[in-house]
Structures are given as C-alpha cells and as structure tokens.
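Example record used in the benchmark description.
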Amino acid sequence: MTVLKALIDPGPPWFRRKSDSHEWDIWYAGHISDWCKIDKVLEDTSATDTNILEATISQQYTCFALVCVALEKCLAVVDHIRSYPIYYAVDGGTLLVGNDARKLLQNVGQGTICNDGVGEYLLSGYVHNNRTLYQNIFQLNAGEYISSFPAERSYEINCYFRYLPPRIPYAPARQTNKENFSQFDFKLNKAFLRVIEAARDRPVWIPLSGGLDSRLVLCKFLELGYKNIETFSYGVAKNHEMKMAEAVAKQLGVRWRAINSNLRDLKEIFASETRKNYARVADGLHMVPTYLDYEAIHFLVTQKLIPKDAVIINGYSGDFLFGGHIPEQLAIEPSVSLLITKILEKHCSHISSSRLATIREDIFSTIKLEMEGLLAGDHSAESVCAGYEYWDWRERQTKAVVNGQRVYEYFGLDWLLPLWD
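Model output (structure tokens):
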C-alpha cells in the first residue's frame, strides 16, 4: 500500500515544514516540544521501530498533531487528547490521510452512511471509537498514530498513550496532605511554565467562570509572573457564574469583561453563513460542533476587542482530571455491569427512542467486551472507576469537550490547554 498524498487543509492551525536532514514532508499543528528528536526519528532508518517512535512521541508534552509523508511512507500522529483530529481512508489500496474528513470523503467518491455511527451520534452527540458517519472514513483516537512503510503490506494503527489512572496501593506510611499538595503544585508549575514558554509573552485571554478550573489557570499565571492577562465571562447577563468571575478578577486585580448573551443576536448568528461554515469545519463528520463560547468569541473578534495574536487558555478539563466525573455509586458498588450502565446513562442517552434500542444494546456489548480486556479481571473500585474514566477520556473529553478549541481556530486565535499537559 502506498500513500497517494496527505490531504491537508492548509492554513492555521496547520503549518508545513521541510527539513534538509531528511526526505519527509511534514505538516503539523500545535506546539512541538523538540523538533530535533522528531527529525532524528524520521531520518533514522529505524523509524519503523515502534519503541523508538513511541518514546519520542511520548516526550511531546503540549498539544500537537503530525502528518509526515515521503515516497511510499506515511506517519500521522495525534496527541493524548486528539486535540487536532486526523482522519484516514483507504481508496483502491491507497491510504489517504488528512485533517479534513470532508476532503477525504470527496476523494473516495460516494460515501456509504454508517448506520451504527449515526445511532451513536444521536445517542451521544459523537460517533464512538474510530468510526465516523461514513463507513469508509475513519478517525484516529486519542493517543494513536497510523503508519505505512514500504516493508509493510498495509498500514498499522498503534496506541502509545491511554488515560487509565493506576491503582494506588495503600501503604502504611502515607504522605501528609502538605507533602501531597507540594508534589501536586510542583507538577502544576512544570506544566504551566511550559505553557507560558509557548505563549511567548502574547496577550493571554482566560474565559473565567465561577468554577475552580479557570480560577486555577488564572492564579497560576499570576503566581508565575505572567503580566499580559485579560479575563472574560459570557452568558445570560448577571448570572451567578459571571458574578463570581467578576469578584475573582477584582480580588486578583486583573482586567475582566462581561459578554452578555442576546437572544436576537443568537438567532441571527446561528442562521449566518459564518456559523454554518464553522459547523462544517468543526463536526469532522462524527460529532456535534461545540457552541459553548461561539457567541462570545464571535463578538470579541467582530468587534475587534481581542488582539489577533491573543492566546485563549481555558480550564479544560480540570473537573474530569481531578476525578469529578466518577459516579459515587460506582466507587461504592464496583462492577463491570454498573460501569457500563453508568456510561450509558451519562454518555449515551441524548435521545430516548425505541428505534435506538438495538444500538444501545450493541454499545453495551461493545463496552463490555472492551472493559473485560482492559480490566483483566480486576473489579476493584479503583480499577472499575479507572475504566469509567478511560471511556470518558477517549470518547467525551476528546470529542465533545476538547473539540471546543475549534471555535478559537475558526476565528484565527491560538490556544493552549495547561491542565492537559
């Protein structure tokens, strides 16, 4: 199998890079921590060694994606949260890889609707696993890469990262809370210092809610000495979160701006070609576009209130990462059956219809099979809760939550996600 071409939709956040040290043509998005290591892997004849490749990829801490193409060779990588989606298709024995699902669909001709994908889309708001709404178009899951080399008859998809919190042994001599907080703060500082380096003194705009996640982001930037900060909140005028955000900003001495939602404006915005084009960019043929802060960003950009070089930094996904999504009952009465039930209740229940009953049964069976392999017979509370978080991470967080970054890109703004470092 050979690669026809990389079907990359050009322009930010994707950029092209050509190196004199190797033959590869590289497209990338996001922030690469160390180009020297990436180049070394690509120019080395042992690039097909998955151990070397995965070790190098795993050292990229910030959000990124890579598509590398050479003669009869291809390597495409998404990061640990699939922050920049990559799609692939096979057409007549040729592997096609790109960042635009619709462009791939155009290149493989008439697409066939994936009925299971449609059912999952209706139940969850996104298609599960690596499928899309079309049978012949696929997506890389978070923490995966796809490769095709001359020595291989086909392509391979490998997983180099998965979010599966390890079981913590209960040692007799446990650390004190002070020691735990100190270690946590040390790790947070390392992550935020990397983000500050990537921000390069540009204006940092933080969507500030009444919650703890965005507040943590703001406090860390201030603690570490970043000066160029602006905060903003959006929604119904004077809602409780905006009041809290205003109070926090005032207490910390930072600029804050309220962007009040307007029903009349919303109707006009939703009917606009600008919004429709955004939907085509953001849905990837497998998920409902995120509109949470679309109105606010649209307002800031159209009114020229936000600098073109601003970096948006939000608090995704602190609540999830700190264990806030684990169902309490699952921790008390751990079992695989309850684990799947809780997933279906939370993540596969957008529509209640008897027509989707078979799809729900199929989802139950699929998750059951996957969890049996993932948990390997360990049905302890720690293991079962980790399984729940794993599914939440791979499906909801990377598709329904992190995909919200498409809003910023669509309006020409850069972004960073420190809590996912």
